Structures are given as structure tokens and as C-alpha cells.
Amino acid sequence: MHRRLLAVLVCAVLLLCASPAQAHDDAAGDAPDGVPRLTDDRGRVLTLRGWNVEDKRHRGEAALSAITERHFRDLRGRGFNFARLLVFWDDLEPERGRYSERYLRKIERVLDWALEHRIHVLVDAHQDVFGPAFGHRGIPEWATRTDGLPFEPHPDDWFAEYFEPAVQRAFTHLYEDRDLRLAQTRMWRVLADRFEDHPAVIGYDLINEPMGEMREGEDMATAARRIEAQQLTPMYNRLADAVRSVDRENWLFVEPTPIVGEGVATGLGRIDDPRTVYAPHFYNTAMEAGADYDPSAGWIEAYERAVTKYPARYRMPVVVGEWGPLNNSLPNMGRFYREALASLNRYSSGWAGYVWCYGGGYCAVDADGRFRTNKEQTAAPYAAAVAGRVTAEEYDAGSGTYRLEYRSSPGFSEVSVPPGARGWRIEVTGPAWTRVRTVPAGRAATVRVPARPGERVTVQAGPLAPR
Questions:
Q1: Given strand 350-353, what is the order of strands in its sheet?
Q2: Lowest-confidence region among 2-16, 96-110, 150-164, 223-237
Q3: C-alpha–C-alpha distance, residues 11 and 17, integer Å
Q4: What is the mean pLDDT of residues 281-286?
Q5: Would you give the distance in Å from CA 230 to the centre of its chain?
Q6: Alpha carbon separation from 216 to 152, 266, 330, 349, 432 (Å, rounded)
Q7: pLDDT value for 235
């Protein structure tokens, strides 16, 4: 593995590395709510901060053409280290049993750009409203079975299309038909076999926002828990086995149904793989329909209580795969971003906002690459990797001061700072050091901090004093 080789070389140079097992034992275990943290192959505690990267419009020869190296250069230039890359089964296998080598090469080119700019990539098998049979992207038409049930498009509310009888029945067949199960596992084996060694890849999101078929008399919450327990859990275990037949190392990301966004705890069961990440999405129905954030509704608090139960029980890290409202400039949205980020950073090992593109709508930045209103709050200092046990981490947006405290283990830690209007002054205390003491205004930086193992270390970043 390329990553293993890199880790060995770093260890040899610094003379600080322990074995991965030892490093894992020393790493910070849990967030305050009992949710474990994501770690890398050296046992360092990871934090992923970034955005989704997508091209839903182009297909065939033009697939992924809307994604360029600029996406990854700009992500790194703002201090982010993570991208959730949308890929589509209908592009990978347009005809049953025929996998597109052209599409695989296009994915590889995107991953190469990510590697060049030091971005971790989550490969996401994306679907919206099942797939092209219903005017969207995802599961191929040849794998779509509806039993002749009706489908009516909802152009002003595409999410409502998930509740059309034909779409719901298509999910049932995907979960229950033996030949479709095998086709889905083969698809994942192809992807994992191709990209297991790519150093940019951190994991695989096995299916985006899975849904299912409601039964008569069920409300949405009851249906979601049943679908998660009886259909998604066995599907994830099948797909995990398929991936592990060719890739033993990269993380597997599993999602509940989108109903979790209503503060409903998932019904998912145990996934029999120790390198599994819980990857819910963080959307509110009212805000998605255009409403402003209502601080008095308690939605963020209810979501956090519900979403942490499953990963605490099954000892899984959490990475939120999508979040962010469409109407980001409404009066209460500044408060929403402050409170949402505070919540996400309490229990998760990272998140990917939706979506890194250049324009309006959900786009993070405008055509000139400037953050759109309130989305600049997503660019803040964070501990990208900690060799040790984190004891405290906080960022005061008012003063612009970031502080990390940890008890060190062998290796080096990395603190990421985004571009600052005045630049950054870096201070390290304890038996630790860094070559980066100041960061010029307008520049992002990754500050590496080796430390003597077993010691208390503090890293602080604050604005440079004016001249």
C-alpha cells in the first residue's frame, strides 16, 4: 500500500512512530457522548472537514467533466482536507455486466488531483430518487423494477418522488432480489478493487440516502426503522463482505434513511466490520423547503441526541456526509451555522458540506471563488490529525483563537488553519516543536507538531498582532 510505505518512511525519519496498534491504544477514544473517533493507519485521531464534489449533469463520455483540479486546489487553499466524491452506478455499469473503463479512469484522474492537494476522498455511490428510470442519477435502469406501479414526477419537490409507489417498489427489489443483490456487490467489488491502493481514498460510502417501501398503516419513522433494521443492515453486511474481498483497509461508511433528519434514531443493526463509520446527513425538512432557521424549535439538539445513540452503542465514529441549507442568507442563518458547527464538532469526526461548486443555490462559493453568505464560518482551525489523546479543543470565533490540548503519543500531530485576514501566530507548549511559527495573511497552512510521547502538549493559533 502506498499509504503504508509513506507511514514507514515518516516513522524512520522522525524516529517517533510506534506500531499502529500501539498508536491506536494511545489515541483519544471518545467524544463526550461516547462516540469513538476516526483514526488513520498510524492510530492518529483524524478530523475531516470539507465538502461534497459532484457532477450530476454530465454522463457517458462527459461524465465528471464539471469537476476540475480547481476544486481540490481551492479546498486545500481554504484549509479543508476532505471531499465526498459522488460516483454513479449507472455510469459505471451502463449495461449489465459491462463496466466502463473510461469512467474508472475519470474517477482516477479526480483522485489524482485530490492526492496532489492532500485531500482525503470518500467515494460515494450516489443515488437520487433511485436513478435514471425516474429522471435522476444512481441505480441503472436495467436494475430498476417497479412491477408496473405508477410514478408521477414532482418538479417542485423532488424529494416527494421517493414516496411514489414505483420508486418505493424499486428499492424493495434492490434489497430483496437475489440477482440485484449480486449485481450491487459486484459493482462495489469493481470499485474497491480499482481504488484500494489509491492514497487519496479514505473510504467508501456504500449508498447515498437509502429509502424503501412504506407499509399500510406505517408512519415515516416506523417505516424508516423497519427498513433500516430489516433491509439496510443485511445489505450493508453484504456490501462490506464484497469490499473486504479486495480491500481490507479503507473505511466503510453506512447511512441511515434521510428520516434521521427529523431527529429519529436509526433502526440500523450491527455491521460486522470493525472499520465502519456512521454517516448520517444533517438536513431539516422545513429549511429544505425554504424556511429560515428557528432557534426555538430545538431541532439541532434533538438531532444530536438521536444521531449519537447508534454510533455510541456500536462503537462507530461519525462523519456527517451532507449538510447545509439552500437559503443560506436568511436572517437566522448566521446563527444556524454557528450552532450547527458547534454541534457537529462535538460528536463527529468530520463533515462534508453540500456542495463545493461555483455559483448559486447550494454552492459553497460564488463564480469568483468567494464564500457565499455565512458559509465562511465553515473555514476555521481544526486538528486534522492528533498523535495522542485529545483533552480539550476549542475555537473562539469572536477572538479568532484556536486551542488544542492533548497527551502525546509517538508521531506528529497536524493543525490546519484557513486563510486569516491578519495571518496566524502559532504557539506550542510542552516538549513539542514546530517549524511554523507564523502564517502570512491570506494563506492556509498545515502546522506539524512532533512531540515527546506521554507529555501534555498545547497548540494555540491566534491572529497575528497588527504591525
A1: 276-278, 251-254, 201-205, 120-125, 82-87, 48-53, 350-353
A2: 2-16
A3: 5
A4: 96
A5: 25
A6: 20, 20, 38, 38, 62
A7: 99
Position 29 scores a pLDDT of 56
**Mean pLDDT in residue range 93-107:** 98
Distance CA 249, CA 168 (A): 34
Contact 149, 173 (CB under 8 A): no
Distances (CA, A) of 15 to 20, 22, 226, 383: 14, 15, 51, 22
| pLDDT confidence bin for 22, thresholds 50/70/90 | very low
pLDDT at 13: 30
* Among the listed residues 390, 401, 345, the one whose alpha carbon sits nearest the alpha carbon of residue 44: 390
Q: Cβ–Cβ contacts within 10 Å for residue 195, how many?
A: 21
Per-residue cell: 451:
512531540
- What's the confidence (pLDDT) of residue 33? 78
User: Between 29 and 38, whose confidence is greater?
Assistant: 38
Q: What percent of the chain has pLDDT over 90?
A: 92
Residue 34 in grid coordinates: 461516547
Pair 394, 400: CB distance under 8 Å: no
- Given a contact cutoff of 8 angstroms between Cβ atoms, the answer to whether 197 and 157 are in contact is no
Query: Can you give the pLDDT at residue 21?
Result: 31
Query: Which DSSP letter does residue 230 get?
Result: I
In this structure, what DSSP letter does residue 180 have? H
pLDDT of 329-376, one tens digit each?
999 999 999 999 999 999 999 999 999 999 999 999 999 999 999 999
Which residue, 232, 235, 230, is CA-closest to 257? 232
**Per-residue DSSP letters for 307-363?**
HTHHHHHHT--B-B-EE--S-TTSTTHHHHHHHHHHHHHHH-SEEEES---BSSTT-
* C-alpha–C-alpha distance, residues 440 and 268, integer Å: 47
How far, in Å, are 99, 191, 367 from residue 59 at the CA level?
A: 14, 18, 23
Residue 101 contacts residue 141 (beta carbons within 8 Å): no
Residue 420 dihedral angles phi and psi, to the nearest 5°:
-115, 145
Closest CA to 58 of 49, 67, 50: 67
CB 110 within 8 A of CB 123: no
Calculate the CA 334 to chain-centre distance.
22
Cα distances from 294 to residues 25, 260, 284, 325, 329, in angstroms, run 42, 18, 11, 13, 14
247 pLDDT above the threshold of 70 = yes
Q: What string of DSSP letters covers 370-394?
A: PBPTTGGGG---EEEEESEEEEEEE
